[in-house]
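Researcher: Sequence recovery benchmark, item below. Answer with residues only.
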């Protein structure tokens, strides 16, 4: 399957992340701050290379802005090279940080304040910023994500990929679309690209069943990559039925090969031989499988029945 369209859009998403934090000039101030603050509040960091407190403050500003995942932006202006706007705002000492919202300055602070105070300042600015008018395209994006999910559920990965790609062209950091892209790549047998897409999901959005299942599935695939082939492990077990590590590894490999029910059966069989092996490792791995497969997957349902039968027999 050709999923190159998604690769391009996820690369665009990475480039778009640079919009959150950028360096600017007096000449570009209107576009980078005044106009941009009509979309989201903007913090303007006036600094200079010789300013020690500036070097302390700026990394914390960047950290807080990245945490907010698009709710606020940061523009850095070197006053040695661009003294014009700083002079107009009456900046007499640095670091000086001004908050802009709706095209005008709304708040400010001076000096290298602690990270916790920066976070409170940013939260106050965000809370005081009126919510933007509802964009009509948002409803279309929402519907498109639903349609992509339906295509994925029906096994039409090409259509799912196409729709997710279109969503990311309009909203490069859309969490559901990025997670959907990762799931699509994973189902198409391209775990590296799946991991790249999942890594682009904003930190604050790394939650929910789909994200957890995709992350768990990728972790299990990475674990399987360092193990022997299924045939080799089966031969070890045939030669020594009490080789419980081989049984455990076989379950991980079978899962990576898409043989989910078989993987669950191997782990339950291991537990029948020694339920406490490796500090209850077989049961814990089976629960990892369930997380990766999803609560409604037939293999999860079958695995839970097998587990219940063993535990409560």
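Model:
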């Amino acid at each position: 399957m050709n999923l190159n369209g998604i690769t391009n859009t996820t690369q665009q998403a990475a480039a778009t992340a640079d919009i959150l934090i950028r360096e600017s000039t007096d000449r570009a101030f209107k576009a980078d701050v005044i106009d941009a603050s009509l979309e989201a509040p903007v913090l303007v960091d006036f600094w200079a290379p010789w300013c020690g407190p500036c070097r302390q403050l700026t990394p914390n500003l960047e950290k807080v802005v990245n945490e907010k995942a698009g709710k606020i932006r940061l523009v850095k202006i070197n006053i040695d090279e661009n003294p014009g706007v700083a002079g107009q705002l009456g900046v007499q000492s640095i670091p000086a940080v001004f908050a802009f919202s709706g095209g005008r300055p709304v708040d400010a602070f001076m000096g290298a304040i602690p990270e916790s105070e920066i976070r409170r300042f940013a939260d106050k600015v965000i809370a005081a910023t009126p919510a933007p008018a509802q964009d009509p395209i948002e409803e279309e994006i929402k519907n498109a994500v639903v349609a992509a999910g339906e295509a994925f559920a029906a096994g039409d990965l090409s259509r799912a990929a196409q729709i997710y790609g279109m969503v990311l062209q309009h909203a490069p950091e859309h969490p559901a679309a990025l997670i959907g892209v990762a799931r699509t790549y994973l189902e198409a047998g391209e775990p590296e690209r799946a991991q790249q897409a999942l890594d682009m999901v904003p930190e604050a959005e790394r939650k929910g069943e789909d994200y957890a299942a995709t992350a768990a599935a990728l972790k299990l695939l990475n674990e399987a990559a360092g193990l022997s082939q299924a045939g080799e492990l089966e031969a070890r077990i045939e030669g020594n039925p009490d080789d419980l590590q081989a049984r455990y590894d076989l379950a991980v490999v079978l899962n990576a090969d898409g043989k989910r029910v078989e993987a669950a059966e191997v782990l339950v069989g291991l537990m029948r031989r020694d339920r406490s092996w490796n500090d209850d490792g077989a049961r814990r791995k089976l629960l990892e499988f369930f997380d990766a497969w999803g609560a409604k997957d037939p293999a999860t349902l079958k695995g839970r029945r097998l587990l219940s039968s063993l535990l409560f027999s």
